[in-house]
Structures are given as C-alpha cells and as structure tokens.
Amino acid sequence: MPDMGTAKSFMRTNVRVFLITVIAVLVFVGCSSSDNKDNVSGNNGTTNKNDTVNQSQDSNSNSTNSNTSSSDKNTDIGGQKLDLGDLDSETLPIIPQETNYSIYFYNAKEINEEVFFPDQKDIEGDPYYFNATVLEVKDIADEFLDPSNKYAADLMNLGVTGTSYKVMTNMGEAIVFDVTPYIIEYLNNISKDNQADKLYYKSFYNNLMPYKNMPEEGDTGKFYGIYVGYSTIYNCPIFTYGVSNLSRVALFETNYLKYRSDVVKKKKYRSLINYETPVGWSEPVDSGGVIYTYLPNGSGYFIIQDIDDADLSLEDAVKMFTGESTFDMPDFGEMGEDEDMPVFDPSEWIKIKNKEKIMIGDGSISAYHVDVSFKNNDTWMDESFVAFKAKRSVVIIEIGFYDISEDDDYGTSFGTDMAEIIGDIDATDTSNNNDDLDDYGDSETILDRNSEEYKKEIRKVLLDEIDKVLKSIVILGL
Question: What angle do helix axes 195-204 and 180-191 make, rounded to 10 degrees?
C-alpha cells in the first residue's frame, strides 16, 4: 500500500492558499500600471453593478457587430489593425493542446452570456470553450505583479512567470491566465524531499510540465479554460489557460461526482495486458516497476505489479500475498539456530477477510479476489487485490481506499468563493502578515467531502468503475 501521507500531505500544504492569492493578486486586485483601473471605483476595484452590466452589454453588442462578416473582423490594438479571423469556424485548433485531456475537457460547455455578468457564483469552476483571437500577450510578472505587494513578491521569488492573454470572443473580451508555471514550481519545491508526494503530483498534474506551443498575438483558436469569475477591475470574465487538473488545482473543489465522465483512457501494462481506466483517474506512474494510479478526490489507489515466474502457480502467488505460504527457516550453519527467535505468525500483520475465485476481462480470465486487512505500524488497513496469470507472470492489482476521519483535514476542499478573500488582499499592503489567508485555508467548504453521504456515494461510483476496469483487461498475445 502506498504511503498514507502522500495524498494527505498534499491536502495539508498551503497550495490552496498560495494559488488563491495568485488569482486574487493578478485579477481582482490588479496593478497600478493597468489602464483599466482608471475606469473603476470603490473598494478593491469594484464597480457599480448596474454600470458594469451595462458596460458588458455594450461590449457584447459592439463585439457582435464587429464580427458579423470576416471582412469587418478588425480591431484597433495600439493603433494597428488586427484580423480577428473566422470566429465562427468549427475547425479552429484547440488551445492549449493537451497530452492527456482531463474530465473537465469532456465537461466543457460553450461560452454564453452569463459569464459576461458579475456575481455568477454557480458557474465558478466550470469548464468552458470559446473561439477567440489573441489581442494582447503579457508577461504576468512584468505586467501584473507589484513587488511592494507581499503576495506578489512571494510569486516573484519563485523565479518563474506565466502568461496572460487578452482575447476577443464573439461575445466580448476575456482574459486568460496561464499560472501553471507558478503551480509547477511550488509543487516541485514542497515535494523535493518527498518522493511519494512527487509521484502523486506527477500522476495527476501533467507530470509537472508546463504548456508548450503558446499562442501569439493574432492567433485564433478554440480556447478551453476554467471560469474563475468576473473581474470588475478589467470588466470581463477571467478563465484559466486550459482545463487540465494542473490549471484547476487549488482554485475550486475537486468534485468528481459533478464532473466525472464515462470517457476512458486505454492503457498497457508491460507486454502483458491492455486495460482501460476512467479519464478522471490519474495517469499511471512507474515507481521501481510498480505502476501507481491514484483515484480522484484523494480517495485511494489502483496499483499494478507482477511476479515474473513461469513456475509459480496463481494459487501459490495468492498465498504469498495473504501470508498463507509456509517456508523453511534458513540454515544458520556453524552459527547454529537461535533458540530465542520468535515463531513467525503472519496473522499478526495480515488477516484474510474474503477470498474468492472470479472471472474478469470478457469472462474468460480466471482470477482470485481477496479482501485483506494488514497492520501498518499500529493501525489496521483494509485493501483488496485481484491476481491472475498472464503469460509467464502473475499479475497483481491492489486496490485501496484512504480512510477519511471526521477530525482529519485530509479531504477538505481546495475550492473557495473568491469574494471572501478579495477584501483581505490590499495591493498596497507591504506587511508580512498572512493571518487572513491562513485562517481562510482552514475554513469550511461548500461541499463537505468528509460527510458520510459523500464518501458513500463516491465509493459506490469508484467501485463500479473498478469493476469496469477489471472487465476491460485483455491478456496480450492470446
């Protein structure tokens, strides 16, 4: 079983607070160099709601009129004309390209007018797609971060920067932020001394790699992004760049029950088997020949390994894992036997709760399904495994769920209502007091993943998905 601290330590870091400040500093506070600040009033850059709605409607009306024909698709940017391209095309390239698309990609909905109005709390965190042309490309550190701001300074100290894009859609302007370089650097820093955590991060977050082939000014494409909120600083909606787990992490609740998809990913284990996993599960990662896949919402793990021994029967392999095997004590030779050596009793560290023969794959693969409880330090942990023969090997699949106790902050949400902390972040505040944000990091969440109802529901869904994975197994070469 993988280290229980892996997923738990991930939940307990300050990554949630850190990334919330990224968006708050870049979007909701803004910077003194922004020309848009001259057009807003009130505390923290908020505008009169009615004025903002009218501005949004005017902007939408003007942009719609400007895109009625391809010959008119020009706008003044720095005194120059920019061709907006064919925003009605159905064959535009996807921006950004992903190696492995997340569940949010398959849940993305087409942009609509509601994102162009403030206070759309119900859709924050939802994935969208929209045809758009890049109007401006800016370096986040150079254009948006003021080193006199305590939170901005923390970002700048990471030594990396992201990119922001002002884009024009058929319905109006929007801002797209790529903050994944900050996220990657932060996760690398906090996991540099913990290989288990690093493994977990890599499996869920694009192998901790930044996006490549970034768009340039004038490029037109089909953008995908998570809706962050409506900025009254810039009078337009804000989206993440991309809808990967990495783009979304720590900003919103990882609600698998809401966003799960029936789309599957085709996988291969060595030259032994093909199988399929749900798109919402992590990517498999290899650690010393053992393949780890993590279940969503920090729920558990799905591990594949094998014993390469043509002479080993399936029954004997299962006995090895359950502690039922007997073996002779080693010959101590001239040293003689130690009469004080305690008798080895497997039941002291592993107990069999259930053992049965089942059929997996298309119904033609004979396997053992075993539920066991084993002792990890002073705690008994439950786990299931499925074993079957594939060529000369015995393949072992281990499945386990992390226990979430009521007094454990593992399982708490990353998500937030941005409005709750905007008032806590002052762009001119240069103090080092982070108490407001630290307090926020322990706040209650809208979706209580520690509730028994939620845990039962997600486990029911995951057990059904595990069953489908087992049924998808095909032994290669047969």
Answer: 160
Given a contact cutoff of 8 angstroms between Cβ atoms, the answer to whether 108 and 223 are in contact is: no
Contacts for 38-44 with beta carbons within 8 Å, 24 or more apart? 39/235, 40/232, 40/233, 40/235, 43/423, 44/422, 44/423, 44/425, 44/426
Whole-angstrom Cα distance, residue 455 to residue 463?
12
Structure tokens at 21: 């400040």
* 197 and 190 Cβ atoms separated by less than 8 Å: yes
Q: Are 447 and 454 in contact (CB under 8 A)?
A: yes
**H or E element that contains 95:** strand 94-95
Q: 102: Cβ–Cβ under 8 A, 6 or more apart, which residues?
A: 243, 244, 245, 248, 279, 280
Per-residue model confidence as pLDDT tens digits over 435-453: 333 332 333 333 455 677 8
Amino acid at 354: N
The Cα–Cα gap between 379 and 3 comes to: 13
Q: For the segment 34-53, what is each residue's pLDDT rounded down to a tens digit? A: 343 333 223 333 333 333 33
Say which DSSP state 121 is in.
G
The neighbouring-strand residues paired with 82 are 75
**Neighbouring-strand partners of residue 127:** 226
397 beta partners? 304, 386
Q: Which stretches of 262-392 are assigned E, i.e. beta strand?
A: 264-269, 273-278, 285-287, 290-294, 300-308, 350-360, 365-376, 379-390
3-state class (DSSP) for residue 410: coil
What is the number of H-type helices and E-type strands within the chain? Answer: 14, 19
Burial class for 312, CB neighbours closer than 10 Å (0-12, 13-18, 19+): middle
Among 318, 390, 326, smallest CA distance to 354 is for 318
Helix (H) or strand (E) holding 5: helix 5-12
pTM of the predicted structure, to 2 decimals? 0.76
d(CA 171, CA 115) in angstroms, rounded, equals 10
Q: Which residues, in sequence order, are CB contacts of 210 under 8 Å at separation 6+?
A: 180, 181, 184
Residue 342, number of CB atoms within 10 A of its CB: 7
Query: 3-state SS string over 29-69?
Result: HCCCCCHHHHHCCCHHHCCCHHHHHHHHHHHHHHHHHHCCC
